[in-house]
């Protein structure tokens, strides 16, 4: 049971830092300007969180087969993923929304609200490469069903937290302001940087049998 909660807290903490839903609030609000009603914003937040849940759960479940198909080891993926997460962390520490997540072109591609919920909000703004890496590695490393269940639960709770933040995006921005959002983004970046470094260390240890 202790191992279950440790895995859950680690994956949820990493996911929340990587997805950084609070940092995504300004982007979300700029995209949903065409929503005329409160119900429309809530519906968009719900669709986005469901898309995040489906995306991350899918990659968590098929991650091991992806490793086998490309002949990659978990340790190699951990090193590469740690480097990617560290790059994102450095951009977050500067108070910016990571370009690894979303580009200006991707932000303008979606036409309808249904499409916006999936691209660019769910993918790649929230559940981008960093989030996918954050679920694939612990899912592959936990061989017992308890550990895998903890990862899936962490994905569900993190996705639900995305819904709660986005549906209250206007209140979040009003209370925190842009300065507050940038401050939280930097704090998340610091947490993510430490996790990324530890991921690389664990990958190197596993690869060289240290």
Provide a short characterization of the protein structure.
This protein is mainly α.
Notes on the structure:
Belongs to the UPF0056 (MarC) family. It is a multi-pass membrane protein. By secondary structure, the chain is mainly alpha-helical. Residues 98-102 and 106-110 have low confidence and may be disordered. It has helices at residues 2-19, 25-31, 38-70, 74-93, 104-109, 113-126, 129-141, 145-167, 169-208. The protein has one domain (2-208).
Describe this protein with a few key phrases.
210 residues; mainly alpha; single chain
Distance between the termini: 28 Å
Q: What is the radius of gyration computed over CA atoms, rounded to a whole number of angstroms?
A: 17 Å
Q: Note poorly predicted spans.
A: 98-102, 106-110
Structural class: mainly alpha
Helix coverage percent of residues? over 70%
Residue-averaged pLDDT, rounded? 84
Mind describing the biggest β-sheet?
none
Tally of separate helices? 9
Counting structural domains, the number is: 1
User: What gross morphology would you assign?
Assistant: globular
Q: Approximately what portion of the residues adopt beta-strand conformation?
A: under 5%
Reading the helices and strands in chain order gives HHHHHHHHH
Q: Quick one: how many beta strands?
A: 0
Protein name: UPF0056 membrane protein
Family: Belongs to the UPF0056 (MarC) family.
GO cellular component, one term: plasma membrane
Keywords: Cell membrane, Membrane, Transmembrane, Transmembrane helix
């Amino acid at each position: 049971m202790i191992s279950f909660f440790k895995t859950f807290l680690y994956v949820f903490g990493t996911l929340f830092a990587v997805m950084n839903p609070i940092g995504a609030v300004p982007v979300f609000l700029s995209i949903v300007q065409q929503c005329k009603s409160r119900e429309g914003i809530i519906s968009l937040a719900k669709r986005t969180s469901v898309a995040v849940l489906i995306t991350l759960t899918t990659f968590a479940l098929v991650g091991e087969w992806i490793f086998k198909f490309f002949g990659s080891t978990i340790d190699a993926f951990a090193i590469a993923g740690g480097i990617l997460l560290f790059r994102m962390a450095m951009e977050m520490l500067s108070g910016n929304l990571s370009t690894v997540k979303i580009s200006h072109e991707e932000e303008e591609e979606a036409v309808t609200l249904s499409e916006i919920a999936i691209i660019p909000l769910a993918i790649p703004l929230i559940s981008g490469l960093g989030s996918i890496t954050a679920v694939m590695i612990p899912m592959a490393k936990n061989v017992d069903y308890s550990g895998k269940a903890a990862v899936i639960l962490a994905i569900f709770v993190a996705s639900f937290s995305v819904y709660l933040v986005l549906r209250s995006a206007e209140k979040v921005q009003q209370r925190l302001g842009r300065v507050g959002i940038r401050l939280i983004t930097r704090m998340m970046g610091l947490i993510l940087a430490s996790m990324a470094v530890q991921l690389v260390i664990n990958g190197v240890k596993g690869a060289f049998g240290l």
